[in-house]
């Protein structure tokens, strides 16, 4: 927890402990700061401390809801009350057992804005039930959602093409696909997906949008023509605060598409 004070203005900000030193260095020249651990008494009244702590808790809760990054104690990777009715995924064979253990490890130790477990399971179910042969994912991060797709694609005989712009996350994702025994099922393309997807050929069964939110319309324009009839466009972080209105317009006003939004994910069927 970091207290930043400037004159009479008081701010309370919560940072990931790992980011704190960076935040300190970045903020010091601008604001000056008092850190309670180092300076002792922060210059804030008890009332404003409580008020700001409540605001911080609200912001933290909102962030959790948006990214599904809840602590294990609050329900590992779950994003809604519905998920409380579910049981943990069960492995039917050695391949699934290994994949599920890698998923658990990624979620606990290498998390970067990954979908909640509940959404990962939904991606798998939709992919397998559609018999998808080619899934295209925008935004691999550390490979969490990709491994959920991989579980389905192992059964359907399909492949995932996934895009990641960040070199470090791309390397982590590749290593995780390998650990999960999915290196033959998943191709990670490193680079700006807006450019890289232009090289795609063939038919797509499922498009999963989970990269830059303001880029969803561009991805849709480029990939929808390649989506087969009865294929799906799935988009993550679709809620009133985060959804791009242009994207929502594109998926809800085209009579050839049918869209529902549930639990922060839009599911769009290409009718023909
Ligand atoms: C929300 S995370 C993806 C989470 C991942 N689908 C999962 O659930 O494990 C978004 C990722 O998209 C990547 N990204 C953002 N803009 C991109 C772009 N233009 N091209 C490729 N990747 C991009 C970010 O680097 C980030 O790792």
UniProtKB/TrEMBL annotation:
Keywords: Membrane, Methyltransferase, S-adenosyl-L-methionine, Transferase, Transmembrane, Transmembrane helix. InterPro entries: SAM-dependent_MTases_sf (IPR029063), SAM_O-MeTrfase (IPR002935). The keyword Transmembrane helix applies. The keyword Transmembrane helix applies. GO terms for biological process: methylation. It comes from the Bacteria. GO terms for molecular function: O-methyltransferase activity. The chain crosses the membrane at residues 50-68. This is O-methyltransferase.
């Amino acid at each position: 927890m970091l207290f930043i004070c400037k004159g009479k203005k008081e701010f309370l900000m919560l940072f990931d402990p790992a980011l704190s030193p960076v935040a300190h260095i970045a903020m010091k020249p601008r604001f000056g700061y008092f850190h309670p651990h180092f300076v002792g008494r922060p210059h804030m009244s008890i009332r404003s401390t409580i008020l700001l702590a409540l605001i911080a808790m609200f912001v933290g809760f909102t962030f959790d809801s948006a990214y599904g990054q809840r602590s294990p104690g609050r329900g590992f990777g779950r994003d809604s009350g519905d998920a409380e009715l579910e049981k943990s995924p069960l492995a039917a064979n050695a391949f699934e057992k290994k994949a599920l253990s890698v998923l658990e490890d990624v979620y606990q130790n290498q998390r970067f804005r990954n979908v909640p477990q509940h959404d990962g399971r939904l991606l798998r179910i939709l992919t397998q039930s559609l018999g998808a042969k080619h899934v295209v994912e925008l935004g691999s991060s550390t490979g969490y959602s990709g491994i959920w797709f991989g579980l389905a694609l192992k059964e359907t005989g399909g492949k995932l093409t996934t895009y990641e712009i960040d070199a470090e996350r791309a390397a982590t994702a590749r290593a995780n696909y390998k650990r999960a025994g999915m290196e033959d099922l998943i191709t990670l393309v490193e680079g700006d997906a807006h450019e890289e997807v232009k090289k795609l050929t063939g038919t797509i069964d499922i498009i999963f949008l989970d990269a830059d939110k303001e880029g969803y319309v561009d991805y849709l324009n480029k990939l929808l023509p390649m989506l087969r009839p009865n294929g799906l466009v799935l988009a993550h972080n679709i809620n009133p605060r985060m959804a791009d209105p242009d994207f929502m317009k594109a998926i809800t006003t085209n009579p050839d598409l049918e869209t529902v939004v549930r639990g922060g994910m839009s599911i769009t069927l290409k009718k023909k």
